[in-house]
Write a structure and sequence with these properties.
Blueprint lengths: L3 E5 L4 H13 L4 E6 L18 E5 L6 H11 L3 E4 L6 H6 L1 H19 L7 E4 L16
Parallel strand pairs: 1-2, 1-4, 2-3, 4-5
Length: about 140
């Protein structure tokens, strides 16, 4: 049987598309989406809530880490893909502490806890589009 995957930031567009890809191409045992809010209705969810092998949980990585870790310890995903971040640059201008609290402190607390879990095979962190700021020309990677 396949692996269990967890997609943090699973209620956003990248998280939903990643979960759909895993369901279609990875032959998973289960794909768990986790987001800070309840899953939005179609068309935003792309109907993923009806897909066999998918489940969604609302947990806030920064403020509900204990609840998130309880869920992860129960489900024991072998792979966690993290999109959970404060990504909007403009939102961080007025309350920059929110960006720092989520993207630095929250991520560090999560990773320190995950390092203690022997069931985790891989943690994949996806950075935000605003991490290096705006550019005048498209970035070449």
């Amino acid at each position: 049987m396949g692996k269990t995957y967890c997609v943090l930031g699973g209620g956003g567009s990248f998280g939903i598309h990643t979960a759909l890809y895993l369901l279609d191409h990875a032959a998973p045992k289960k794909v768990i989406g986790v987001g800070r809010n309840l899953l939005r209705a179609e068309p935003f969810s792309l109907g993923i809530e009806r897909r066999r092998g998918f489940e969604y949980h609302a947990r806030h990585v920064t403020y509900e880490l204990d609840l998130l870790l309880k869920l992860l310890d129960e489900e024991r995903p072998q792979v966690i893909i993290n999109y959970a971040a404060q990504g909007e640059g403009a939102a961080s201008w007025e309350n920059s502490w929110r960006y720092f609290e989520t993207n630095a402190v929250g991520l560090t607390r999560l990773c320190e806890e995950l390092m203690k879990r022997d069931w985790l095979e891989r943690f994949i962190h996806i950075g935000t589009s605003e991490i290096y700021g705006s550019v005048s020309e498209p970035a070449r990677e």
